[in-house]
Design brief:
single chain, 217 residues, mainly alpha, two-stranded antiparallel sheet
């Protein structure tokens, strides 16, 4: 869900650039345009502001590529691990947990069977934690090693999933930092005076050059 928000932010900024900022290159880059470009694609604003020197933008662009690769890598790993421990539970404990709650998944990893689990909850008077003794809840691990492997796979999957929000946060931070940096770079460059040289011809036929210096405020 959070990845969709980051993607929507990039699309919105890109659309705004297309509608509000002229695509043609300007002699003095527009700071707003640089900001929006880097918000859409980190580094793009630096390239827009100064095509000859956008090393900072390349760093942000590289970081974005690495973060995107990490996000999809961790998500793929989490999905693969979930498939593995769900299959293991189905084959070795006798229950299908593909659509079961997290509490049930934790329970079959901590106890060898449904009877063992319910006996423990009864002894501790945890009436609300009992599972109904029906076939779909009736797990029984064939050996301890399978249960330990199940727990390891499930824990690895949760660790991989927990990395995703952090990566999305770093992607958002990278975009904001890149946008602010591109804005400042463009603003500094746009404040430099424009110097234009024009050839002139006076009444006597003598030629010369007039230099026009203009400042943006």
């Amino acid at each position: 869900m959070m990845f969709k928000h980051v993607l929507a932010l990039a699309i919105t900024a890109n659309l705004y650039i297309s509608l509000a900022v002229p695509a043609a290159a300007q002699q003095n880059p527009d700071p707003r345009g640089a900001f929006l470009r880097s918000l859409a694609v980190p580094g793009w604003g630096h390239y827009y502001a100064d095509k000859e020197n956008w090393t900072r933008g390349q760093i942000h662009l590289g970081a974005e590529a690495a973060l995107i690769a990490s996000y999809f890598g961790f998500r793929h790993r989490a999905n693969r691990l979930e498939t593995q421990f769900v299959t293991l539970a189905n084959l070795r404990s006798g229950v299908n947990i593909s659509d079961r709650s997290r509490a049930f998944r934790l329970a079959i990893g901590e106890y060898n069977s449904l009877n063992e689990y319910n006996d423990y909850q009864l002894r501790n008077r945890n009436w609300n934690r009992l599972f109904e003794e029906i076939q779909e809840n009736n797990w029984f691990w064939q050996n301890e090693e399978d249960r330990r492997k199940y727990n390891q796979l499930r824990s690895d999957r949760e660790r991989a999933r927990n990395q995703l929000p952090a990566i999305l946060g770093l992607m958002t931070l990278n975009r904001v930092v890149s946008a602010v940096s591109a804005y400042n770079r463009s603003k500094a460059k746009s404040e430099l005076p424009d110097i234009t040289f024009l050839p002139v011809l006076d009444e006597t036929g003598s030629s010369g050059i007039v230099a026009t210096v203009s400042f943006r405020f």
